[in-house]
């Protein structure tokens, strides 16, 4: 689901706290072996926020949405002609 924050700073604070709680950065797992791939680039972000109509919105999985405000705003789609 999409959720909104009033400022980028509010989003960053929420995101930083979530990443700390989830143990980011994460080491990727090799799909073929199931073992950690220490040579692969680490995952450093849970989600990204986008400014839409004066709010900052981001996709958040249900298990991490406690205390967040759901939004009907959506990230604009970029059309390339």
Distance between the termini: 29 Å
> Mean of the pLDDT scores?
93
Taken together, the total number of domains comes to 1
Please count the beta strands (DSSP E, at least 2 residues each). 4
- If you compute it from the alpha carbons, what radius of gyration comes out, rounded to the nearest whole angstrom? 15 Å
Q: What is the approximate shape?
A: globular
The arrangement of helices and strands along the chain is: EHEEE
Helical content class: 10-25%
Order of strands, main sheet, comes to 2-3-1-4
The chain-level structural class is alpha+beta
Beta-strand residue fraction = 15-25%
Q: How many separate helices?
A: 1
**Main β sheet profile:** 4 strands, antiparallel
Low-confidence parts: none
What topology does this entry show?
Blueprint: E1 2-5, H1 8-22, E2 50-52, E3 55-59, E4 69-70
Antiparallel strand pairs: 1-3, 1-4, 2-3
Give structural notes.
By secondary structure, this protein is of the alpha+beta class. The protein has one domain (2-70). It has one helix at 8-22, and strands at 2-5, 50-52, 55-59, 69-70.
